[in-house]
Design a protein that fits this description.
Strand order of the largest sheet: 3-4-5
Number of domains: 3
Shape: elongated
Distance between the termini: 56 Å
Radius of gyration: 21 Å
Strand content: 5-15%
Helix content: 40-55%
Low-confidence stretches: 1-24, 177-184
CATH topology of the largest domain: Lysozyme
Structural class: mainly alpha
CATH architecture of the largest domain: Orthogonal Bundle
Number of strands: 7
């Protein structure tokens, strides 16, 4: 039981110690969201959880890549070895290569494990000590998992910078305990317009979300343009970083149509943009009225 507590505490601390630098913040959020899946795979297949997490961060740019957001592909695995499932086209070594697509992140993590355990060129890795993350890193590179000549060093750097090796203690937790901790897991973290957010649940407060994410209450309120005294409501979008000046590039020059019940603020939250810039790009004042059917720019 003490091991469970220590492991759970570490996992939460990993999230709570978010770096002041954007990349550190992004990596910490990815780790907090997927450490449990990495541990689960380690218990089933003896692949170091540290390696799995580090690969996920690199291959998805910490959850921001198109393959990750559109196809749930966390490990850059292409459609080879008789893959008959869905796929997504993306440019890599060559244009329009086929990459595997999954229904969920968990399915991607499971397929990554099977990809390594069923591919003969990786068999030698399973002779290594499961805690030998350095051996695994150099082994993955030598076996051709990635073409980047610095791939092994990148993996090792992430593992040591974020102390991911602590997840490699095979005696610290078992699959049932993982499931139990997962049930207690905090909010799922979503990605929108190069930013991260959570969805408020009943009973959430700025204090509870701050404690969970490591982002101060003051910053959470500032990032979400909320006044002092505001009470979080179930379903509220809560950004963890400063919102952008405009929506994603795909909306540039395009008009969006206001739906019934929407406000300028809800639109700014939906597209991850600051409210003042939404007014500015539409030549509107803060006291302007909004109505269903109105057309607005979110990137101009």
């Amino acid at each position: 039981m003490q091991n469970i507590k220590r492991f759970a505490i570490f996992a939460l601390l990993a999230f709570a110690t978010l770096s002041s630098k954007a990349q550190g913040n992004i990596n910490d959020i990815y780790i907090a969201q997927y450490w449990n899946m990495a541990v689960e795979q380690m218990q089933k297949y003896r692949i170091p959880a540290s390696i799995t997490l580090a690969q996920g961060i690199i291959e998805t740019s910490a959850g921001r890549s198109m393959l990750c957001t559109k196809a749930n592909n966390h490990f850059g695995i292409k459609c080879s070895n008789g893959w008959t499932g869905p796929y997504m086209l993306a440019n890599d070594d060559r244009p329009n290569e086929k990459f595997r697509a999954y229904k969920s992140a968990r399915e991607s993590y499971e397929d990554h494990s099977k990809f390594l355990t069923q591919n003969p060129r990786y068999f030698f890795l399973f002779k290594l000590n499961p805690k030998d993350y350095r051996g695994w890193a150099y082994g993955l590179k030598s076996a051709g998992y990635a073409t980047n000549p610095r791939y092994a060093d990148m993996l090792i750097g992430l593992i040591e910078d974020y102390q991911l090796y602590r997840f490699d203690d095979s005696h610290a937790i078992n699959p049932r305990q993982v499931q139990r901790i997962e049930q207690r897991q905090e909010h799922r973290v979503y990605f929108n317009n190069d930013n991260y957010y959570v969805i408020a649940r009943a009973g959430d407060t700025f204090k509870s979300i701050s404690k969970e994410t490591g982002v101060s209450r003051r910053k959470i309120m500032k990032f979400n343009e909320l006044e002092k005294g505001y009470t979080l409501r179930e379903g509220d979008v809560v950004y963890l970083e400063k919102k952008k000046k405009h929506a994603e590039r795909s909306y540039k020059g395009k008009l969006i149509t206001v739906s019934a019940g929407e406000s300028f603020y809800s639109i700014s939250q939906r597209f991850g943009i600051q409210l003042k810039y939404l007014y500015k790009m539409n030549n509107l004042s803060p006291d302007a009225e909004i109505y269903a059917g109105q057309e607005l720019f979110v990137y101009r």
